[in-house]
């Protein structure tokens, strides 16, 4: 048994390290800690390799977006406050206008990615892959802006993603996304409480 674990780790060490970093990334984000972003950056770079080999091309492309958003989020969480450039952007709830724009953006991104995957790649599940990718793009932007409701989007995206990774036998990543789903619920509760405490 021990030898099987060692052999598996030898063959899948990149995915395993990425999964561990992914858990650290979520823990930091729940706590509104700036280390959210360097761990996000490292996780994204490793998952570019993992998803390339698994032929999840939309998820691989998403990691390049995450690399960019890690830099953007790092800035916004350190000097993004419009009232004081030396402070982090404050927590906020989603506005009605932003919700409409986010919904439209999600739909357009989904359609574009689905079309590309369906017609130009050998992706085994183009609809589901495009769906989770579109939601993840919008949720990550909202995370960088500290919009509390981004956690609700992650709950949906992570639940669907865990099923996709089980289908592709990416067991550490599937487990990671089950954990992500649970942590997203915790994150929503914690951020909501933190917002209420700042308003009191």
Describe the structure.
This protein is mainly alpha-helical and 200 residues long. It has one domain (2-199). It is 81% helix and 0% strand. The chain contains seven helices and no strands. It has helices at residues 2-30, 36-54, 57-79, 96-120, 126-144, 150-167, 171-199. Helix 1 packs parallel to helix 7 and helix 6 (150-167) runs antiparallel to helix 7. The longest helix has 29 residues, at 2-30. It is globular and about 55 Å long. It starts with a helix and ends with a helix.
List the helices and strands and how they pair.
Elements: H1 2-30, H2 36-54, H3 57-79, H4 96-120, H5 126-144, H6 150-167, H7 171-199
Q: Could you provide a short overview of the structure?
A:
By secondary structure, the protein is an all-alpha fold. The protein has helices at residues 2-30, 36-54, 57-79, 96-120, 126-144, 150-167, 171-199. The mean pLDDT is 89.
Pairing-aware structural class of the strands and helices? mainly alpha
Count of beta strands: 0
Low-confidence stretches: none
What's the overall geometry? Answer: globular
Helix content: over 70%
What's the structural domain tally? 1
Largest sheet descriptor: none
Order of helices and strands: HHHHHHH
């Amino acid at each position: 048994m021990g030898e099987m674990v060692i052999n598996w780790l030898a063959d899948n060490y990149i995915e395993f390290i990425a999964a561990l970093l992914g858990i650290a990334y979520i823990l930091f984000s729940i706590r509104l800690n700036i280390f959210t972003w360097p761990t996000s950056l490292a996780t994204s770079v490793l998952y570019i390799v993992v998803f390339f080999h698994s032929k999840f091309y939309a998820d691989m492309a998403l990691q390049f977006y995450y690399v960019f958003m890690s830099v953007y989020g790092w800035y916004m969480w350190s000097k993004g406050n419009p009232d004081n450039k030396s402070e982090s952007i404050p927590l906020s709830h989603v506005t009605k206008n932003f919700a409409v724009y986010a919904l439209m953006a999600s739909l357009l991104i989904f359609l574009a990615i689905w079309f590309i995957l369906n017609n130009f790649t050998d992706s085994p599940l183009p609809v589901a892959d495009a769906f989770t990718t579109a939601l993840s793009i919008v949720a990550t932007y909202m995370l960088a802006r500290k919009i509390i409701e981004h956690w609700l989007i992650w709950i949906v995206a992570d639940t669907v993603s865990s099923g996709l990774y089980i289908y592709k036998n990416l067991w550490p990543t599937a487990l990671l996304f089950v954990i992500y789903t649970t942590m997203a619920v915790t994150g929503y509760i914690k951020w909501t409480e933190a917002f209420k405490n700042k308003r009191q």
